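Memo to structure team: turn this sequence into structure tokens by end of day. - J.P.
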Amino acid sequence: MVDACMACGKPTPIHKLDAKPSSRIFTEAALNAAALAGEQFEFLACAACYGPGYVEGQPA
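Reply from structure team:
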């Protein structure tokens, strides 16, 4: 399955997109704080756009 990076629009296999909050926080500390605060991570970004903390998923 392929989707597009929400930052650059590049078609990317879904397991190579990582989610972050809609606020598009790009620092690892801010991502951790958002997770602890219960924010929804629905903004999908490729490795190049995600920044620190990117984690590739497992292919289905």
